[in-house]
Amino acid sequence: MNKKRIVVYVSAGGLSTRLYPLTIEVTKAWLDIGNKTPFFIALQNLLALIKNPEVYILTQGFQNDIFITSELKDGSRFSQNASIRYFRFFDETKDVEKRHITEGSGEGFINFLERFERELGDAVILSMNVDNLANFDPNDMLRYHNMFHRGRPGVTIGVTYWGDRPDINQFGTVRFDEKGKVIEFREKSPEPASLYINTGIVMFSPEVVQFLRGRSSELKDLGGHVIPFLLSNGVSVCAYGHQTEGFRQIRDWVDFGTIEAYLRANGNVLNGIYDWFEFQNYERLEGDSYSALVHKNSFETLKDVLKNGKVSLKDRSIIGSGINLIGPVSISNAVIGHNITIGNVEVSGTQEYPAVLLDASTIVNSELRSSIVGYSSCLNAKDRKSSMGEFSVIGNNITVANARIDSRVRVADSRYTELILSTNKYEIVYASNNLIFFVEKQSSYNPFR
């Protein structure tokens, strides 16, 4: 069987509004998980598995253009044979001010197929998102793709078993027969097609371009429009990642596009679920009740303060470089970033949903529970402890003092009020001292209830 080459297509667009306020100033692709850049490490692992990897990255928006291209460059830092090509969406049929704006993932994907049809040749296209982490083998997926479609134009949807979790309606669901043939695909439906979800890891035979050419204006979304259109027009569509003899599964998949999923992704890394997630410059510090990965620049400091009781560690934690301790600290199931100042604080989460303190934040006289403090932000208190409930979020570059932040409440600088409300996803519950406290209009499932 002829093994075609794999070309990786990555869409790095969108505003990531479900992660507000964390992604107002920082692109989702560069939002740290486990003190590392997840997109970089995941791509590094993927390209190590593909021979002579070729990557096409659709960037949209200033942040993605700057952050992604400056860090990944031409791909040579991954391997000598790797190449990365960046491009922006362009549709000459739109008004000038809208020609570089896609209205959905499907529009960008079809634009990619049409623009690079000659360069792609007979390559199989592996489409992925920047906000996914998973354990999977692209070569095994290609082997399944080739076996199932046998030279016919085809689509292979990477699926993973989700079960009857209450949030299953937030994903595309796939129904397939015992051989893996897809019978039905439903995108974010209150009545799922099955208990298997689409991971966004999808393989396309190059011939699908003939079905999609010229249809970018009508097939806006990759999951909601492109795949159902191909399925209804006789294109062979199958599901990869279910229990098929001789093939692997897609395991430990997470789309970190929501606050809950972002914390879950940190939990996966904290628990060592991704063995490809490297921790260079970290050392393990262990005791009877704890196991922590500590950056070498903080290792001796932590050892010393553990002896004098200034710090108490429990369960699992990741602790970055440059930690500055100004008082007693209790840490349990937490990801502590770099250059953190912390004192008289209890930071705790669960193994599935750890607490996360992003780089250069300061936390004093406070309690945090499975919550997030953004980059260069401060949470402090004088008369009584500040506190953060489960899934609460403090945005980047702000100071919050003497506050009790209830579960699922998010805090941002008031200058972003109009931007946040324009998403039509949030409502303001309180405003004070140039800060706004806001919540989702329809709060999603809370696993702590």
Report strand %: 25-35%
Instruction: Please state the structural category.
Output: alpha/beta
The CATH superfamily of the largest domain bears the name Spore Coat Polysaccharide Biosynthesis Protein SpsA, Chain A
**What sort of overall outline do the alpha carbons produce when their principal axes are compared?**
globular
Major sheet characteristics: 17 strands, mixed
CATH-derived topology of the largest domain? Spore Coat Polysaccharide Biosynthesis Protein SpsA, Chain A
The average pLDDT score comes to: 91
CATH architecture of the largest domain: Alpha-Beta Complex
**Could you estimate the helical fraction of the residues in percent?**
10-25%
Q: CATH class of the largest domain, please?
A: Alpha Beta
Kindly provide the radius of gyration, computed on alpha-carbon positions and rounded to a whole number of angstroms: 23 Å
Our count of domains comes out at 2
Number of helices: 10
* Gap from first CA to last CA: 52 Å
Oligomer: single chain
Q: Are there runs of 5+ residues with pLDDT below 50, and where?
A: none
The counted number of beta strands is 28
